[in-house]
From TrEMBL:
Name of protein: Cysteine desulfurase-like protein
Highest rank taxon of the organism: Bacteria
Domain Aminotransferase class V: 16-372
Pfam families to which the protein is assigned, alphabetical: Aminotran_5 (PF00266)
NCBIfam families: am_tr_V_VC1184
Classification via InterPro entries: Aminotrans_V_dom, Cys_dSase-rel, PyrdxlP-dep_Trfase, PyrdxlP-dep_Trfase_major, PyrdxlP-dep_Trfase_small
SUPFAM superfamilies to which the protein is assigned, alphabetical: PLP-dependent transferases
Length: 382
């Protein structure tokens, strides 16, 4: 779908590295160049025309991202990466915890939604409890989180989709269970966002975050929190910088040219027909799973009923890095290792080498899946 909107795809590779970063849509590329050429490039908060244009860029990008994530612009914070934003968020909110308070993380999450909470909890004297995915399917039902919730739980940090195996947890059930004990929920939608709408209001979550470079934009990340939650906390900041939320969460000068790209990518996302995206991605995933599943030298990990089109496998007798290098020779881009799904790699007993990950985005097509299958089939021992 829409392959002609992605100049980088003309190179002809099978780009199955989307979970590590998507290619950039043409309108986002143009928007960034246009912004830098325009003369509007100034700074935030000045008293002249170009500074007002910069203010308008920031505000309209907050609006576009809030619309995409089902929140309100007063709750949208930009930052360099989801990892950096989560470090800052966890360090800030956990300052209000006391010894004996608890935080729930999951073994399915990317480490950027685990370690910041573990580090901050240790400093606060709080305890982190882990929700375990179901053995075999690696699904994360609400019961997995309920098993580690208590009346001391203050925050639950959970992914909207695993970046390793695609599992989509039962977020609605998890949010309901967390709220029932008075805990707040922080959702990592970095992997999920290019595949499905994750609406803060519809989920009832408290904060949701993602990174535009996973959904066809530049390297900028954002949190979209309920405005009253973002306003409640006071992150470390410089004296002269704004003290109102959301601005007080942002450190230093924003990357305005990149925000122009984020706004254009968000507009592209808002125009996408996600039912069609889902149907297309699902057919690619189904054919890849069926093909790899039929190869007895391949082991697939996870079998969630609800999942993003991302799969992880190992090939008997081949180190994951060697497989990735071999696929590189065939112009197929995949990832090897743990892709920072560090807890999951350990849960699966795959440390330290991990596995191989291939992920589809809506711009992939059937020939990408076929190229992967035929290359991996050729690794069969003779
Ligand atoms: C699920 C998930 N969470 C978080 C991250 C980290 O995002 P960032 O690179 O913006 O820190 C990634 C990146 O791969 C991811 O896939």
């Amino acid at each position: 779908m829409n392959r002609d909107r992605f100049p980088a795809l003309r190179e002809g590779w099978a780009r199955l590295d989307g979970p590590a970063g998507s290619q950039v849509v043409d309108s986002a590329i143009e928007a960034m160049a246009d912004w830098m050429r325009s003369g509007s490039n100034a700074n935030h908060g000045g008293q002249f025309k170009q500074a007002h244009e910069t203010d308008e860029l920031v505000e309209s990008t907050r609006v576009a991202c809030a619309t995409l994530l089902g929140g309100s612009p007063e709750g949208v914070v930009f930052g360099p990466s989801f990892t950096a934003l989560t470090m800052r968020f966890a360090a800030t909110v956990l300052r209000s915890l006391s010894a004996g308070d608890e935080v729930v993380c999951t073994r399915l999450d990317h480490d950027s939604n685990v370690r910041p909470w573990v580090i901050a909890a240790e400093r606060a004297g709080a305890t982190v409890r882990f929700a375990e995915p179901v053995e075999g399917t690696l699904e994360l039902p609400a019961s997995a989180v309920e098993a580690v919730l208590s009346e001391r739980t203050k925050w639950v940090a959970v992914t909207a989709a695993s970046n390793a195996i695609g599992t989509v947890p039962d977020l609605v059930g998890i949010v309901a269970a967390a709220h029932a004990v008075g805990a707040r929920v922080y959702v990592d939608a970095v992997h999920a966002t290019p595949h499905r709408r994750n609406d803060l209001a519809a989920l009832g979550a408290d904060v949701i975050g993602c990174s535009a470079y996973k959904w066809f934009g530049p390297h900028v990340a954002m949190l979209c929190g309920r405005p009253e939650i973002m306003a409640e906390y006071h992150p470390d900041k410089l004296n002269p910088s704004p003290d109102e939320s959301p601005d007080r969460w942002e450190l230093g000068t924003l990357p305005f040219e990149a925000l122009a790209g984020v706004r254009a990518a968000a507009e592209y996302m808002l125009d996408l027909d996600f039912e069609a995206v889902h149907a297309h991605e699902q057919s690619l995933l189904d054919s890849a799973l069926a093909g790899l599943g039929a190869m007895d030298h391949v082991t697939l990990y996870g079998a969630a009923a609800e999942r993003a089109p991302t799969l992880m496998f190992t090939v008997a007798g081949h180190h994951p890095t060697e497989v990735a290098k071999y696929l590189n020779e065939r112009e197929i881009a995949v990832w090897d290792g743990n892709y920072y799904a560090w807890e999951l790699e350990r849960t699966l007993g795959l440390a330290p080498h991990g596995g191989i990950r291939a992920g589809f985005l809506h711009y992939n097509d059937a020939s990408d899946a076929e190229r992967l299958l035929s290359a991996v089939a050729d690794l069969k021992p003779t």
